[in-house]
Amino acid sequence: MLTSPQAFPVFLPVGLLSALIGIVFIAACTSDPAPTESYHAAKQHADAGRFEEAMFEYRRAAQCGHPVAMYELALILRTGAFKSSDGSPIAYVDRDTAAAQQWFSAAAGALRDSVQAGSAQAHVLLGEMLYRGYGVARDTASALSHWRAAADLGFPEAQYRLAVARFESGHHSRAFRLARRAAQEEHAASEAFLAFLYQDGYGTTPDTDSAMVWLRRAAAHGDSSAMIRLQALRAAASDSIRSSANGDDESTP
């Protein structure tokens, strides 16, 4: 069980939270270090496997109103896990869905303020909350609108989210075009997703060679599952070649 020496702040009911959120943060927040510094420290601790320290810094940054820290802390508490870039759990914490819901609600308000300031990342995260129903009512149309706005600001993560959403709704050709556009920006998740589309022929002609190319690029850009998928694809291709060769040998008079 991962714990932190700093307890969660006392939360008000969600309806009052939106109105009085600033007071809650002021009461819980310490000004040193700055919330951005705490957020970056949380990421560094998590990357180094220091998950108790990461939770401490996530909580401190979130309490001081850092919107991305609020969102990521809520995800950790909702799933009970720290996850790698490909979504695989790498460390577990106690799940707390009530606290997660409150942090999601807090994040929604803070992200809306950041959206008004033109933050592409805020558009992406708020879109994800609306698309999945995290702390807010599900609203697919609004989610897609936020992702399109972020994509217009040149944020490849938004193109990736749009691609996945289009794939999930069965629009495979559109998903392929969006994924390829984001992959060309060296976005690792998009490269891995594009490889999947090539491999299984969603929105395009099946192309194992292209799938391997994009998996290599995804692995080079930090997708931890891409190399495993690449090795499996190579093994399958080798087995297919051997089977074909054996078949030719058996048919030779």
Automatic annotation (TrEMBL):
One protein family per Pfam: Sel1
Coiled-coil intervals, chain numbering: none
Source superkingdom: Bacteria
Transmembrane region(s): 7-28
SUPFAM superfamilies, alphabetized: HCP-like
Keywords: Membrane, Transmembrane, Transmembrane helix
SMART domains, per database record: SEL1
Descriptive protein name: Sel1 repeat family protein
UniProt organism field: Longibacter salinarum
